[in-house]
């Protein structure tokens, strides 16, 4: 009985570190911004994760000068997350992590774009899935903000791929 509990504890501990992130659709993983970027000022950079995602996406050139009249004003909103069902993890647990499973959580990233008194509210569903697989223990793709930034850049630049 003790050996079984010990085995379950050790295997569950191993599965915690065996994850990585993937961006969908695949085109978003390598997309580059070719056009001239607009200048933007973030009104509320205290939303740290959202700010890091926005700045890493590279869709705007950011400035710290709030008095710059040419810059768009960006007001970030908190990232919302709808958690996917965790049932596929059971299949991975039964195969001791040899069967990779994806949990396609839904992330909603929103910001308001203020330009000369007009406010444009923009919301994007970021398709960043968490993959659980034993061999991901040896990978370093565990930076959610980096992959969320790739998804945001893809949604911003290629809106026609929304339903793919």
Description:
The chain has 164 residues and is of the alpha+beta class. It has one domain (13-158): Double Stranded RNA Binding Domain (2-Layer Sandwich), CATH 3.30.160. The protein has helices spanning 2-16, 48-57, 88-94, 144-157, and strands at 19-23, 38-42, 60-63, 72-76, 80-82, 101-103, 106-115, 118-132. Strands 1, 2, 3, 4, 5, 6, 7 and 8 form an 8-stranded mixed beta sheet that branches. Strand 2 (38-42), helix 2 and strand 3 (60-63) form a beta-alpha-beta unit. Helix 2 (48-57) packs across helix 4 (144-157). The longest helix has 15 residues, at 2-16. It starts with a helix and ends in a 7-residue tail after the last helix.
Q: How many domains?
A: 1
| Alpha plus pi helix count | 4
The largest β sheet comes out as: 8 strands, mixed
- Can you give the helix content as a percent range? 25-40%
Average pLDDT for all residues: 82
Distance between the termini: 48 Å
Low-confidence stretches: none
Element-by-element helix/strand order? HEEHEEEHEEEH
CATH class: Alpha Beta
Tell me which CATH architecture applies here: 2-Layer Sandwich
Strand content: 25-35%
